[in-house]
Amino acid sequence: MINTPLISVIVPVYNGEIYIKGCIENMLNQSYENLEIIIINDGSTDNSATIAETFPVKVISFPENRGLSVARNTGIDYAKGEYIHFMDVDDAINLDFYREMADAVTETDADIACCGMINELKPHRTILFPEKKVLHSIQEKLKATNVGKWGFAVRYLFRLSFLNSHNLRFEAGRFVEDLPFSLSAVFFSDKLVVVPNAIYTYIRRENSIMTRKDKAHRKKKHQDLRHAREFRDDFARKHKFKIPGIPTGKFSLFFVKWFT
Hints:
Layout: E1 7-13, H1 20-28, E2 35-42, H2 48-52, E3 58-62, H3 68-78, E4 83-86, E5 92-93, H4 97-108, E6 112-119, E7 133-135, H5 138-145, E8 156-159, H6 160-165, H7 178-188, E9 192-202, H8 215-239, H9 252-259
Parallel strand pairs: 1-2, 1-4, 2-3, 6-9
Antiparallel strand pairs: 4-8, 5-9, 6-8, 7-9
Helix pairs in contact: 7-8
């Protein structure tokens, strides 16, 4: 390990009492110790905050639920680390995750490190990297990360000064907030490094934001997905680049519905 920059880990929590203990222990058991763990208690009505306060972490509590975007943005504003990572309370990372990510950004001076991801909800979205590689061009970065289709901000370690210099924040009030944020960050980064031995596991949980099945929730999710894709397409046109794997023409709606 070359050096150990402080990494701020931002964990939004809304009624996550059955997951919060395991999540915090996953981070405290990391082989990398220079972590600032920030729990954003997003108006939980269960014991999430009480459980979190028994650990050596920072807890910021909202009096009412304000949504994932506001929680993450608040974490960015409070973070003291040189780098930040967004962690979902019900997911998991391997125990060398932060050591591998810190080594990668330190060795390469990259703005962003991208880990591998195992996606339990949609296995075809699993991405693992065979080797560490530094990417510079937008097409290299888009192809390697597939960020134009799968935004997942949890896959990235971001240099905090880089996010602030480009005023990158999540749009409040959206269920699909990751794609615009991650795509913008990947585009504006001077260097991005992919990291083979840091693995984030996206775990399928019933009644999560993405698996809830009530009609109003599904309608809102589809509206926000459409909004995110419109942002993506407008952003690509504005900055004059094409996104690999994004279909066009009369079969595009069929493709998006069944294969993404």
